[in-house]
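Ticket #4471: structure export looks truncated?
Reporter: QA, pipeline team
Priority: medium

Steps to reproduce: submit the single chain below to the structure queue and open the exported record.
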Amino acid sequence: MTDATTLFHAERAGHTYGTGATAVVAVREVSCAVTSGARIALSGPSGSGKSTLLHMMAGLEQATSGSVDWGALDGHPAGRPDQVGIIFQGVSLIPSLNAVENVALPLVIGGMSYDEAQNRARDAIGRLHLESLAAKLPDELSGGQAQRIAVARVLAAGPKLILADEPTGQLDRAAGIHVVDVLVEAADELGAALVVSTHDPAIAARFASRWTMHDGILASVSPHDDDFTDRTAS
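Actual output as written to the record:
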């Protein structure tokens, strides 16, 4: 059951890629909730299902078993950057658009005027201290710079739920700390929930709720975490 503060809820939800002998179970019977204002670090080894679970939260992957819903987000969030913003693990910028245009594009698609979207994009880029990159194309950016522009793209939309899949993976320690600082600050200002997938224990330790995944199974290292419900034993 969900309430007015629940942004995402999963009940024994799973996701399997493929069918038959080649099927790969990425997420197994996960039951959890992400509520307004939540700060969650999602840890686990590569291949544990972290990215798939984040994509399910974003509405980019469907549950192939169990159920999911987005109660307080008023329906399926895919294609609605003002509801859910996701920062992907790999570079996701459009090669033919410069940094400002990449950040502004989801806003324009969502119906915002071109001028307002450009202003919002420049403001978000400024918050990450990337003004010098505003006119550059993606192939003129380093991997770390491109990742930070992708962070700016999410922040510009002002979503209610921010999902970040290893946002510091291509950054040095100082840049990674800055990106996490900006994500937490933006979530605080927006009143948004924040879920960050990370391999870095120091980053995970900054979050009030810390979840781990192994072989597609979600477990919590926060025993009294209200956003987590362990169904694996039932």
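Status: closed, not a bug. The export was complete when the record was re-opened. Leaving a note from the reviewer for reference: Strands lie at 6-17, 24-35, 39-43, 65-69, 84-87, 161-165, 193-197, 209-214, 217-220.
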